[in-house]
Amino acid sequence: MSTDSPSSSAECQPNDYALRRDLMREWAADLDQLAVLQDELTKSRAELEWTRCENIAQNSAIEVLRRDTEVYKEEIATQRSELQKLQNNVDRETYRQLLENYWTVQAELDKTKIELDRQTTAFAELQRQKDEEQMAHMNRLRAEILSIFAQAPAGFNAAPTPAGGTVQGRPQVSPQLAPTSSNTTRPQPESITRPLPHCANTSSLITTGNGPRTENISGVKPPIKGEHEDDIIIVESSGPKHAKYLTALPEGRRKELEESPEFVTDVDKSTVFTRGFLSATLGGSHQPLIVKIAKQKQKSLAESCNIEKFLVPNQNQNPWCPRFPGEHGYMFVGLGNERETFQEPERLNLFLSVPTGGSKALEVTYMGFYEVSSGCTTQRRRVAHTITHRATQLRGDHGQQGK
Questions:
Q1: Measured distance CA(329)–CA(309) in Å, rounded
Q2: What is the pLDDT of residues 336-374, one digit of tens each?
Q3: Do strands 170-171 and 166-167 pair parallel, antiparallel, or not at all (unpaired)?
Q4: Where would you tag: which of 100, 163, 177, 348 has the fewest CB atoms within 10 A of its CB?
Q5: What pTM was computed for the model?
Q6: Same domain assignment for residues 144 and 170
Q7: How does pLDDT run across 121-171, given as a tens digit for each residue?
Q8: Sequence-distant (≥ 6) Cβ neighbours of residue 24 within 8 angstroms
Q9: Which helix (H) or strand (E) holds 210?
């Protein structure tokens, strides 16, 4: 064991005191720093505790939201299931209603069809009766017209002449038609060749055909002996087989006319008068092809016979026009105001104007009651002119038997 001398101990005491003082100062500083750190630690713990509490609260809220979400999902699934059930029910109900409506409409449609068929049948029967009444009425009117024209004054009307005679300088052509068909043995119906009830002589006998007429009739043979002795008269022709001024009727148009029924009429073609007499007796202008009579300008005859329109074609300008009562043919109408005429068939009285032996004066004869319709679907240009005409078909007298 070593011992320090008193002198050395006295020397060491001030140094130890200073050292302890420095250490105390360092400890004090460390304690202050420790206290600061302790405060910071306390604050950190408090913040951590607050954060933990916040996390717990947030977790609780999240858990609540999760449970609510599950509940909502279950409710949505339930609603979807209910909606699907409702949709299925609606579809079935809608389909049932549609099916019921379909059968209801189908039943109504069947009833409507039955009623329509009944109405159609009734309408057809009424139309047939109306046509018959109209034909009978037109026959009576035509008889009145013929009787009035036959009693026309001498200044307007020329007296009838026998076959082969002349009317005001014009050669009288016997009303006998020569069929242009190559089949000359084609049988003629009984109604085609028969004596006419109102004929003054045998020269007024008319048989219909579809070709140009023949001239220079040599005479009339006696009736054929046999069962129908009173029904058949044969007229021979020794002249040319075509009219001098007549242009050839195209084959297609001739065949179309051959499909139309033939008629026998009792119109006396030998009764001749002028356009002026026609205008004065019926009304309307004395120039146009299609004569329209205004209601306030109808003459008494036109008013009593209900004549508001009639046709007066010129034979020179209409070479395919009928030349004998009951014959079928065509006439030309212009492409001006008459362009849209006869798109629907009309039944009109037909008069034929014929030049008198090269003179510009015209003689007019009554041809009968005709159905007029558009008989040409294409427009045809005349060779010598730049004017295009439309052919209109004339079908024979619809007031006669044999329709």
A1: 19
A2: 777 778 888 888 888 888 877 655 667 888 888 888 887
A3: antiparallel
A4: 100
A5: 0.40
A6: no
A7: 888 888 888 888 888 887 888 777 777 766 655 444 443 333 333 333 333
A8: none
A9: none
